[in-house]
Every structure is written in C-alpha cells, then in structure tokens.
Design brief:
By secondary structure, this protein is an alpha+beta fold. It has a single domain, classed as 3-Layer(aba) Sandwich (YefM-like fold), CATH 3.40.1620. It contains 2 helices and 3 strands. Strand 2 and strand 3 form a beta hairpin. The termini are far apart. Belongs to the phD/YefM antitoxin family. Keywords: Plasmid. Antitoxin component of a type II toxin-antitoxin (TA) system.
Length: 69
C-alpha cells in the first residue's frame, strides 16, 4: 500500500493509477496529513460490489423471513 498527498497526486496521478491497476495494491490519499480517500483497482471495486450485492440479498431474505415468522 502506498500513500500520496493531494499535492503529490497533482503531478503524478497517472503513474499512481497505473501502479494500482498493475499491482492491485491500493493507494491511500491524504489531505494535510489526514487520510481522505483510497484508489483501488477496477477488479477490487467490482469484487466489493459483488460482495455488497450478496449482503443486500441476504438482508432482504432475512427481512422477509422475519416478516412471516
């Protein structure tokens, strides 16, 4: 995992994004020393959304089961 300030990213955002895409390793973005964002690969983003969809489906199933019990 790498960490980059907003100031640093102004000059080399492309290189950071390419590194994240190539390695799959996320990059933390800081603003005045405070962590404010994360750059992740598209594959990781898609995986997160797949997991979120599964969690949503399980919650819905649980809500329906509780309604009828």
């Amino acid at each position: 995992m790498s960490t980059h300030s907003l100031r640093d990213l102004r000059g080399n955002l492309g290189a950071v994004v390419r590194a994240v895409a190539a390695t799959g390793e996320e990059a933390i973005v800081t603003d005045s020393g405070t962590e404010v964002a994360v750059i992740i690969s598209l594959a990781d983003y898609e995986r997160l959304h797949e997991h979120a969809d599964v969690v949503d489906a399980l919650r819905l199933r649980e809500q329906r089961a509780n309604r009828y019990s």
